[in-house]
Amino acid sequence: MNRHDSEGRILSSQALRAALGRFATGVTIITCRAADGSPVGLTANSFNSLSLQPALVLWSLRTASPLVEGFLTASHFAVNVLAENQLELSRRFASSQADKFGDGLWSFGLGGAPVLAGCAAVFECERVSSQPAGDHVLFIGQVLAIAESDVAPLLFQAGHYRMLGELL
Question: How confident is the prediction for the chain on average, in pLDDT?
Fold first, then answer.
């Protein structure tokens, strides 16, 4: 589908994706427990803070994802901010591999959402809102618990994983 910019030129989804890729992000594995009790998780870089008071975060998931229903029915989710040494877990959760939770040290947090050990940070959240937004569903959660470690986060920019650089 093509869109037009303010001057009437065609704005393609590919061009938009390429431009958005210039923005460096952290890498997360977002998890929940589905209605049937099974753990659900995926790699995402669409995570952001929304509010400090109350403590709210947001993330989005493609409506075409087979995991949408699990997150829509879950009362809680966890945002596991990956460390540099968790690159392979990021790839695992971005794939269609069946047993994604077969690697990593996992425990169950609030609402049964899987929490990964060794992360740069973890946000355990109660889902307060989910709404369609274009070709994605936007999830908003109230942060109920946090954990952080003094480890370098895994980054993603221009289609590649990156490491944190020198302080400027």
Answer: 93
* Cα gap 168→166, rounded to integer Å: 6
Mean pLDDT over residues 53-59, rounded?
98
CA dihedral 121, 123, 129, 134 (to 10 degrees): 20
- Spatial CB neighbours of 39, under 8 Å, sequence gap ≥ 6: 31, 32, 33, 101, 106, 114
Q: How far is CA 21 from CA 25, 67, 83, 155, in A?
A: 9, 23, 20, 12
What does the CA dihedral 16, 160, 23, 152 come to, rounded to 10 degrees?
160
Output DSSP code: residue 135.
T
* Closest by CA position to 125, among listed 149, 101, 153, 146: 146
- Cα separation, 86 vs 27, whole angstroms: 10
**pLDDT digit string (tens) for 15-47?**
888 888 888 899 999 999 999 999 999 999 999
Six token digits for residue 130: 């989910």
**pLDDT value, residue 1:** 45
**Distance between CA 146 and CA 121 in Å, rounded?**
7
